[in-house]
Amino acid sequence: MTAFSIRPLAEGEQRAAYDLLSRALHSCRSTEEVWARRGPAFPASRKFGAFSGGALIGVASSFGTELAVPGGKSLPAAAVDGSPCARTTPGAGC
């Protein structure tokens, strides 16, 4: 089994995470133009990365939302919005 570490993404690692998501969805890495447009909407907060040898091999991402419960109340919740992994990392739980 390949050893890897999981930690919150640091500021400056968002583009690598976005590119990993793009490649997982059969797209290409972002161009400067695309990243300039999409980057501000892809913050590092609420994103965790899996790293192997310093390379980003997986991402888990969520956003805050509310969950309606019986009685007309709502509770804070998190919704998963992406969990790509590198195609070069088979069997790593992705």
Written overview of the protein:
This protein is an alpha+beta fold and 94 residues long. It contains two helices and four strands; from the N terminus they run βααβββ. A four-stranded antiparallel sheet has the order 1-2-3-4. The chain is globular. The model has no long low-confidence stretch (mean pLDDT 86).
Quick recap:
The protein is of the alpha+beta class and 94 residues long. Helix content is 19%, strand content 37%. The chain has helices at residues 14-24, 32-38, and strands spanning 5-8, 47-52, 55-69, 73-82.
Kindly state the percentage of residues in helix: 10-25%
User: What would you call the structural class?
Assistant: alpha+beta
Largest sheet strand order = 1-2-3-4
Overall pLDDT: 86
Total number of β-strand segments?
4
Q: Layout of SSEs?
A:
Blueprint: E1 5-8, H1 14-24, H2 32-38, E2 47-52, E3 55-69, E4 73-82
Antiparallel strand pairs: 1-2, 2-3, 3-4
Q: Which keywords apply here?
A:
single chain, 94 residues, alpha+beta, four-stranded antiparallel sheet, 4 strands, 37% strand, globular
